[in-house]
Structure formats: C-alpha cells, structure tokens
C-alpha cells in the first residue's frame, strides 16, 4: 500500500499473516495523535488499543505528588494498551504523545476477542509484551545507575528508531519530565552533545548529526533493549512496501 496513511506503517500490524490483517483492517480507525495528548491516565479504563504509525508515545509512571518519569516509549514498532489483553482493563501508567503523528486504534473488546483466538495475533502480542517489559526494566536500571548524558543518549536513540527522520521536536523541560531529572541536568547534557557535534539543538528542535558517536556515548541499556526486540520480533524488520 502506498497511501499516505497505512496500518502497515505499524510494524506489528505489518507482521501479521494476511488472514489476520484482512480481518482486523475494517475495524482499525485512523486517529491523529498531537503532541502532549494523553491517550490514557493512570487507573483509567482503557477503551482502545493504539498502533502508532508516525507518532511516539511515552509511558509515564506518575507519583502522588504529580512528578513523573518515563518507563518506556512506544512507536511504530508496537502497541499501546497491553493490559487489555493481559487480563486487566486499567494500568498504573499514563500514556502521552511525545512526538506528534498518527496511528490506528482498535476497540478494547475487539482486541480481547482477537487475543482469545489463541492464534498468530496472540503469539505476536505476547512476544512484543516481553520486549516491552525488558525496556521497562532496563529503563529503571538506567535511571538508577547511569548519568543524565547516558540517559539522554539512550532516549534519543530509542526515539530515532521509531521515527522516519533524524529530527525530534522536544523541549528540554519535557525531556527532563520524561527522564525524571532536573531541567538543568538535561541542559548540561544536551550542551555537551551539541559541542561534540553529535546533535544540533535549537528552540525545541533536536537534530541528530552523528548517530554512531551517539551510540558510543550511550550506556549499554540501549543495546540491551534493541537486541531483545530484534530477538523476539525479527519479523518487525519487514517494512511494508
């Protein structure tokens, strides 16, 4: 499909066998996902799952005092709302669009019915869920043991993997909120990367200029997450034509 918006731009949907994809296609609804949109709140009832195509969504854990930290990012490789098919209808995390774009959504009951078929959709979603849990666990370790600069490198690389370009729109304040650190720490870390020629940062726009060097300055957490996704979901490397 060569349409501007196609469900196959989401790698999970693109990896489905023809029969399963054809069955789901009429039920998928294209939705715009603007920057900062809250797709679901902590403890809220989930009514849909989302398959991002060009948007990136942050999963945030929100504390009682209102502070938050990112526990995972989901883009065109994945699905939002795993609790719906994992046995629950709510989640303790908040889902917020960190990079504007589009995606497709599917009603909660429909994904439950599809998962209950115990076929290819269920197996694919379970492998994705394992990879997502790895990302969450590695993020927790990274936030505890690595520098803000290393965390920023990891975050940039994970975001780039889910975009079609090397440019991100994100203020330092938002990045600080995602990482759960002080804005001054992000300012210092971004400044180091810019002076080293790895990124260009101006007025909320980040352009990655030297990805190989960015990977070298990142901690092992990025590689661990990417390796696990590649191991569990090798079919996601097949891009829709």
TrEMBL record:
<protein>
    <submittedName>
        <fullName>Crp/Fnr family transcriptional regulator</fullName>
    </submittedName>
</protein>
<dbReference type="InterPro" id="IPR050397">
    <property type="entry name" value="Env_Response_Regulators"/>
</dbReference>
<keyword id="KW-0805">Transcription regulation</keyword>
<keyword id="KW-0804">Transcription</keyword>
<dbReference type="GO" id="GO:0005829">
    <property type="term" value="C:cytosol"/>
</dbReference>
<dbReference type="InterPro" id="IPR014710">
    <property type="entry name" value="RmlC-like_jellyroll"/>
</dbReference>
<dbReference type="InterPro" id="IPR018490">
    <property type="entry name" value="cNMP-bd_dom_sf"/>
</dbReference>
<feature type="domain" description="Cyclic nucleotide-binding">
    <location>
        <begin position="12"/>
        <end position="130"/>
    </location>
</feature>
<dbReference type="Pfam" id="PF13545">
    <property type="entry name" value="HTH_Crp_2"/>
</dbReference>
<keyword id="KW-0238">DNA-binding</keyword>
<dbReference type="InterPro" id="IPR012318">
    <property type="entry name" value="HTH_CRP"/>
</dbReference>
<dbReference type="Pfam" id="PF00027">
    <property type="entry name" value="cNMP_binding"/>
</dbReference>
<dbReference type="GO" id="GO:0003700">
    <property type="term" value="F:DNA-binding transcription factor activity"/>
</dbReference>
<feature type="domain" description="HTH crp-type">
    <location>
        <begin position="162"/>
        <end position="210"/>
    </location>
</feature>
<dbReference type="InterPro" id="IPR000595">
    <property type="entry name" value="cNMP-bd_dom"/>
</dbReference>
<dbReference type="InterPro" id="IPR036390">
    <property type="entry name" value="WH_DNA-bd_sf"/>
</dbReference>
<dbReference type="GO" id="GO:0003677">
    <property type="term" value="F:DNA binding"/>
</dbReference>
């Amino acid at each position: 499909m060569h349409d501007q918006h196609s469900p196959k731009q989401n790698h999970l949907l693109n990896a489905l066998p023809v029969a399963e994809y054809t069955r789901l296609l009429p039920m998928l609804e294209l939705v715009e996902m603007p920057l900062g949109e809250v797709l679901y709140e902590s403890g809220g009832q989930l009514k849909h799952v989302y398959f991002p195509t060009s948007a990136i969504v942050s999963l945030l854990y929100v504390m009682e005092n209102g502070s938050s930290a990112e526990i995972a990012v989901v883009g065109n490789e994945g699905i939002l709302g795993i609790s719906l098919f994992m046995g629950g209808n709510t989640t303790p995390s908040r889902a917020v669009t960190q990079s504007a774009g589009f995606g497709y959504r599917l009603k909660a009951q429909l994904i439950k019915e599809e998962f209950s078929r115990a076929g290819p959709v269920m197996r694919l979603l379970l492998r994705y869920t394992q990879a997502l849990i790895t990302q969450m666990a590695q993020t927790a370790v990274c936030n505890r043991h690595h520098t803000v600069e290393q965390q920023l490198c990891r975050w940039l690389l994970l975001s780039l993997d889910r975009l079609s370009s090397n440019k991100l729109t994100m203020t330092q304040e938002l990045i600080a909120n995602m990482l759960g650190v002080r804005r001054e720490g992000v300012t210092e870390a971004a400044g180091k990367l810019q002076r080293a020629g790895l990124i260009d940062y101006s007025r909320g726009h980040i352009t990655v200029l030297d990805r190989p060097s960015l990977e070298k300055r990142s901690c092992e957490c990025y590689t661990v997450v990417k390796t696990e996704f590649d191991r569990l979901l090798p079919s996601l490397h097949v891009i829709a034509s």
